[in-house]
Every structure is written in C-alpha cells, then in structure tokens.
Design brief:
Elements: H1 26-36, E1 40-44, E2 47-50, H2 51-67, E3 75-79, H3 84-95, E4 99-102, H4 109-119, E5 123-126, H5 128-136, E6 144-149, E7 153-158, E8 178-183, E9 193-197, H6 198-209, E10 223-226, H7 233-246, E11 249-252, H8 258-268, E12 272-275, H9 277-284, E13 299-302, H10 309-319, E14 323-328, E15 335-338, E16 352-353, E17 358-365, E18 368-371, E19 378-383, E20 390-391, H11 395-401, E21 402-403, E22 406-415, E23 421-426, E24 431-433, E25 436-438, H12 440-448, E26 453-463, E27 467-476, H13 484-494, E28 503-506, H14 520-523
Parallel strand pairs: 1-11, 3-4, 3-5, 4-8, 5-6, 10-11, 10-12, 12-13, 13-14, 27-28
Antiparallel strand pairs: 1-2, 6-7, 8-9, 9-20, 14-15, 15-16, 17-18, 17-19, 19-22, 21-22, 22-23, 24-25, 26-27
Helix pairs in contact: 1-2, 1-7, 2-3, 6-7
Length: 530
C-alpha cells in the first residue's frame, strides 16, 4: 500500500526517528547492566542471573572466543537448549566481533554437520550430550568446541587455544555488520541461512516495543516465560533480546511441556507469555486449564503460524484473556506485523505493520510485480529496516527474495483498507485441484471450528485426474468422536465443492518440524490406514 493507513492507530511516540546505523547488540547488554544492575535477568529453576552477572559472563565468554581466534565476523555456532549460558554465548560472540550461527538442538547429527560446514563455523558452543551425538555420527569435528558444564562453566574441549587473551575495558568495533546466521526452510533439505545485521535486530526490537510493551506500564519486576526456542529468531528477538532491552526477568524453559509450563505460569505469575499456536492447542487439551489462573497474565502473544479462530475463542472463553496474534518471517528479524491490545480487533487478522514497515500485496505479471486491489489475495512484500541482508553464500536466492528493496515473503495474504493483514497461506502450500487454487487455511478454519476437533492440517495429495486433491488430517480432542460424515457435511455447507476434502485422516498427533511447526510435507503422502 502506498500510504500507511495503519499509522492512525499508533501512539504518538511510535513514529519518532528510528536510527541504529553503526550500533551493535552488545550496547543493549551494557545499557541493561547499567540500568537494571542486580535485578534478575535470567531464571532457570534455582539458577538466577542478574543483569550484571549476565554481562560478566558474556565478557568471559568473549575472552575465550577471542583466544580461539574469533574476530572480524568469524562464525560462532551455538547448539544449546534454552539456558542462561545461551544468552551469555550470544553476547559473548558479538563482543568478540563474531557472527552467531543458530543451530537447533533438535536437529540430528547430519543436519548439524551440514550447517556447521555451510556456515564455516570456527567455534561451536554446546553440551556434552550434543558432542556425543555428533561424535557418534562418525564425522570429525574440525573446529574448536566449547562445552557448557554446570560445575565448570564454559570450557574448551577440542581445538587450538590461539594467542593469550588480555581483557580490555573497551572493545574496538572492527567486526562486520553481520550479527546472525538464522537457518530456515528446514523442510527443504538444503541449508538456507538468513543474514541478519546488528541494525536489523536492534531495529526490530524497537519496532515491536513501540506498539506493544512501550505504550503500557510494565511493572519493574515483570517476568516473561521464555519457552520459545532461542535458536529460532522469533524466540531470540521477541523474547530474549526484548527482555534484556526492557529489563524483564526471563523464566527459562528448556523444552515445552504443557503441564509444566502451566504450573510455572500459575506459580510465577508472569506479565507476558509468548507462544505458537501449537502451545495454545496443548493448553486447551488440559481438562483443568481453568485451575491455573492464566487470567492473571497481562499479555498473551501468538505467532509462527496463524492461530485457528476456534482456538482463539476457546482460550478466551476458558481463560478470560485474549491472545494477540502477529506475523513474521525469519528474513525480517522476524516481526513485520503485530496486534497491539489498543487497536480494534478484526477476526482472522494478524494485525497491522510495525512502525517503519511498508507493505505491498502483489502478483507477478509481465516479468514484474503488480499490486492487487485492496482485499484481493496476492503475495506479501515487505520493506523496512528489519529486512535481511540476504542469504549466506547464495546470491541467486537473494536476488529472487529481494526485488528492488522489497522482501518477497512467499505468503499469500489479503490486506483491508486499514492495513490489517489476513494470512491465506504459503504460496508453496496452495493446492491446485482441477485447475482451481485452494487455500488450506480456509478449509482449516471450517473444520477447526467443529466440536471435538483439537487440530487440523490441510494439504494437497497427488491425484491422477485432478493433479492434486484436498486432504484433511484431524486430531480429535481427548475422548471426542469426530464423524467423517459430519466433517464432509460441514465443508459442503460452507465451501465450494472443489474445496471439500476428498481424503480424511484421523490421527493422534500431527508431525512437527524442529521448530514446532506442523510439517505439512510429511502429511502430503497418500492416506494411511488411520
């Protein structure tokens, strides 16, 4: 959209100048240590780190990394679960003028090895369990390895030490602007690393704050549940870095388990909870959800995928709180849209753009891009200071994704006259059945609203005559019986005939990718015997 109609909803301060050119992420930690001092920054069970301790640990890590030869943008791979040491390693790598490589600990050894090789990592920070997993694969680890140990802290277990390190009070700014390599597209097979700069990430933290936590009064002792993987940019930017920026105490959860997280929320009364739709679906499966007093949390946020409207309604009815949705993509650090609590709610929307973000909805035409009329479906294109530098070692893919300064997201959306975003689906997920375009989200909305349905995913399945046909995979709620006939009848009543699923499967759970999203590629195979 050429204008920015959504800015009428912004608080006055949201559009103040935003300039982080030449700034680096370690400045955020230095400022937090000065402002918040001994206040708790990271809490993991009985382990508690203050902001001052976090900075001391980060400086110590930086020293070790420097001794291992990290400087000038050398890659430091972090292969850790959510833990305080993860945050220390992040800032330590940046203080040492390195570039962080995010590695999901859920990956298997060959996936990890491909990422380490593709990134050209000089240093790996990990745990003993991960080292054993990698060595069992039989491939040599040709880099310096630091192991996080509860008793001994961070220690080097493999690789050269380099020249002795002399601690300095002032760190020279000699590194490249690259802060992070975020691997994405885990279901495509080949590594694809998003290059995010210090400026990208600093801007995105501030963009979100100005229309979310910034305009409201956040208590001095505010807590946030940090259960999203730090190895994913959503958890990293929106929870970990944002919390450091404003002084929130992060309640760190290494691995999401619905029951234990509900108990944590009940006992600790956090101010904010960030999750993905599958986490809220897991909460809703708990019969005694109301007993955990989730209504005492001020803000619930969901992103990573559209939250089914039925789940949003059920959560509000059972908890008495709204879930504020948003939209993002790794290539945009990740936030492009958010749903501030002070704007009118519109069903099915993922909110409005964060400040200093331009939006287009386009379709390819004549070798170029043409804007579609307001309200029509097209591909979302984004421009703003949070947009990536490109893909690591892949100029061709970079040219495809960045066109005249616009990031082509691959997401099919529509935008209304006020700039509210409605996600229809991924361009690659569109089902082409007998020449018709079928958007899975539309069918998922209909089935997901039916009684007894916990989750649903719709994919295209190969079909000899139609090319593709519509397949719906349904997870019933515990103890519920979902009738195939009723599903088909509901779809026929609310959808065009070519959108009605030809294949229905009932399963106990949906397959997930390493970052917790529904793995639709795994569902696209012919129907099983379930």
């Amino acid at each position: 959209m050429k204008a920015r109609p959504w800015t009428k909803f912004y608080p006055p301060s949201a559009q103040a100048p935003l300039d982080f050119s030449g700034r680096r992420l370690p400045e955020m930690l230095a400022s937090a240590a000065t402002r918040f001092g001994d206040a708790p920054a990271l809490t993991a069970g009985a382990v508690k780190w203050s902001f001052l301790r976090l900075r001391r640990e980060a400086l110590a890590y930086a020293g070790l990394f420097r001794e291992a030869g990290v400087a000038g943008g050398a890659r430091v791979a972090i292969l850790l679960p959510n833990m305080p040491e993860y945050v220390a390693a992040l800032f330590g790598a940046w203080l040492a003028e390195g570039t962080v490589v995010q590695v999901n600990p859920a990956y298997v050894a060959p996936e990890i090895q491909r990422i380490l090789a593709h990134a050209g990592a000089r240093v790996l920070v990990t745990t003993g369990d991960q080292i054993e997993k990698l060595r069992a694969d039989g491939q040599p680890l040709g880099l310096t390895v630091f192991q996080v140990d509860e008793a001994e802290g961070l220690r080097r277990v493999q690789g050269p030490c380099g020249v002795p390190y002399e601690e300095r009070a002032a760190w020279p700014d000699q590194s490249a602007d690259l802060a992070l390599l975020q691997y994405t597209g885990g279901t495509t097979g080949l590594p694809k690393a998003v290059m995010l700069t210090h400026e990208n990430m600093l801007c995105n933290v501030e963009q979100r704050l100005r229309v979310t936590l910034g305009p409201i009064e956040v208590p001095a002792d505010a807590k946030v549940v940090n259960t999203l993987p730090m190895s994913h940019v959503y958890g990293l930017t929106c929870v970990t870095l944002t919390s450091v920026r404003i002084g929130m105490n992060q309640l760190i959860v290494p691995r999401f388990q619905a029951r234990s997280v509900l108990e944590l929320i009940r006992d600790e009364r956090p101010f904010v909870f960030y999750g993905v739709p599958t986490m809220y679906a897991a909460f809703l499966r708990e019969a005694d959800l109301e007993d955990f007093r989730l209504d005492r949390v001020a803000i619930y946020n969901s992103a990573g995928a559209p939250m089914p409207p039925a789940h949003w309604e059920q959560f509000q009815a059972r908890v008495g709180a709204q879930v504020l949705s948003g939209f993002g993509i790794s290539e945009a650090s990740p936030s492009t849209h958010t749903y501030p609590g002070f704007i009118p709610r519109r069903q099915g929307s993922s909110g409005i753009p964060v400040p200093f973000t331009d939006v287009r909805v386009v379709r390819a035409e004549g070798g170029g891009l043409m804007d579609v009329p307001v309200g029509e479906v097209g591909e979302l294109a984004i421009r703003g200071p949070q947009v990536m530098k490109g893909y690591w070692k892949d100029p061709e893919l970079t040219r495809e994704a960045l066109r005249d300064g616009w990031l082509m997201t691959g997401d099919l959306v529509r935008v209304d006259e006020d700039g509210y975003l409605y996600v229809v689906g991924r361009e690659k997920d569109v089902i082409v059945a007998s020449g018709y375009n079928v958007y899975p989200a539309e069918i998922e909305r209909v089935i997901g609203a039916m009684p007894g349905v916990a989750e649903v995913a719709v994919v295209g399945a190969p079909h000899e005559y139609r090319g593709e046909t519509v397949k719906a995979v349904i997870v019933p709620q515990p103890g519920a019986a979902v009738s195939r006939e009723e599903v088909i009848a509901r779809c026929r009543a609310e959808l065009a005939p070519f959108k009605v699923p030809a294949i229905l499967e009932m399963v106990n759970e949906l397959p997930r990718t390493a970052v917790g999203k529904i793995d639709k590629r795994a569902l696209a195979h012919p129907a099983s015997n379930n």
